[in-house]
Amino acid sequence: MKRTCMARSLALMLCLCMLLTACGGGGSSAKPAGSGSASAGGSSAALSGTTGGATSAQAVGGTLTIAIQDEVEGCDVQQITWTNVVHELIYEPLVVFNGDLSEIQPSFAESYSVTDDYIEFVLPADAKFSNGDALDANALKASVDRYLAVSDYAGDLDAVSDVEVIDARTVRYNLTGPAPYMWCSLASVFGGIVDVAAAEAVGDEEFNRLPVTNGLYYVDEWVQGSQITLKRNEYFKTANPNLTNKGVAPFDTIVVRFIPDEFTRVSELESGDVDIIYNVPTTSMADLETDPNINVYSYLQPGVSYLNLQTEKGLLSDINVRMALSYAVDRDELNAALDGVVTPTYGFISEAQAGYSATEEAKLAGELAFAPDKAKSLLADAGWADTDGDGIVEKDGQKLSFEMLLPSDRASLKASGPVLQKQFAAIGVDAQIREYEADYIKQQMREDQYDMGSRNFEWADADILYYVFTEESGYPWDDPAVTAALVAARQENDTAKRVEAYAVASELLSKDFKGISLFADNYIIASKGNITGLVVTNDGRSWFSDVAKS
User: Fold this and answer.
1) 428-430-432 Cα angle (round to 5)
2) CB within 8 A of 218, min separation 6: which ones?
3) What's the whole-model pTM score?
4) DSSP of 502-529
5) Cα(53)–Cα(64) distance, rounded to whole angstroms?
6) Which of 65, 241, 324, 392 has the highest CB neighbour number within 10 Å of its CB?
7) In 376-502, where do the E strands start and end?
8) Which residues are bridge partners to 456 per DSSP?
9) For 318-329, what is each residue's pLDDT tens digit?
10) What is the dihedral of CA 105, 145, 200, 238, to 10 degrees?
């Protein structure tokens, strides 16, 4: 998953005090290559967003080929800033969220327990890294210490005062205070474990190419610009209760090919040259969904795409103008124009994020519903009128005209531009589309050189809002009330109270109109029809332990 805020992003959390103690069974023993199958039968849990069947792996051996859009920036999860399916295959976090994000469960850890002062993890007996090195409590401590020292996201674990080895299999994370947001990292691939001794032996640069890790597979070869070849980790174990096969992977080899062109990825799937593709283009979704030889797996963006509005200077500093722009947006028309490949949103938390409240989203949908007459009235009350009959309102001789920055490299936001432009024009506002790469738009916003910029973020927890709507974003704004509300929410351990706290923050954001939430993307992964057992959770994580190819 890309950590896109674009300042930050990852995968999720849950409350400490509600979790108490969770236990899971140990993984099965590693098997030599070609020595038989994993256990038969269906997946142990029916997960949201899963299609194409959920059976366990039927044979050990063979090769699975995957095509993805973006080549990885590196393979050492402690040295990189975004991840994709490659990292999901080579790292196993200590804990994992279940498919619908409602519960946190053991994964690499055999069990864990929680108090107000610490989280304690018990590792499986005789655990090993992919190279056979012991993965005991000391190795886990070394990995966490290195993460805190080198990772750009060390702040995700800022509540850990120290990591304490209790015994050979038990590690305790001592805490300085409540930090439920920390589960985000722990349950993501950024919570995977690296072999620090191996890293020190080869150096960070080489380790970023060929790391030694604890996941289902390990990196055997990376041909830059072409592909990564992964080999089965013969020592792998998991306690993930959502999987039937808790031992070694079903395939000897997984080849992950880098194919930037989206239509080439689709063609490669249809021709049978690849088994699974990620980043399915929206224009191909309908055809793939009706193809009986293709399995389609859909999931929702854990976050939203939105318009960010200038609040401190220029034409949009008038809250009445910002409110008018918000009421001018017809999300249903926008969804129809985008062929239904997005889910309209009114708040800034999508259903694929912890902290989401269906009640709050419904409330905001009512309050912020498309209301062009109300938008026109707000502009008129603020002194804007079309006195020359050209369709654009003006005030003190100045037209209500500004640039709307749209990302050329974000398909859904780019495609939404002409629709939004037409909707704003309908209330007398001239929004001039300017397309740039997303990183440039982010930079313009950080330099405060914009009126309206379009952004998106992805992180399966509402805590991402702390890095979007406070000074932590790097953008030049600070609303003390919003910041206080988001700090209170991120420190709330009780699940229900945490949802309520984010509802309070959402209310504040809706009153200040810093941004206009538009939609969450509906993402698609596709496989050949003979692929079974692939699990795709509702926030887009992929589990391969039970995958089979007939």
Assistant:
1) 160
2) 90, 130, 131, 211, 212, 230, 231, 233
3) 0.78
4) HHHHHHHHHHHTSEEEEEEEEEEEEEET
5) 17
6) 324
7) 394-395, 398-399, 401-407, 430-436, 452-456
8) 305
9) 999 999 999 999
10) -10
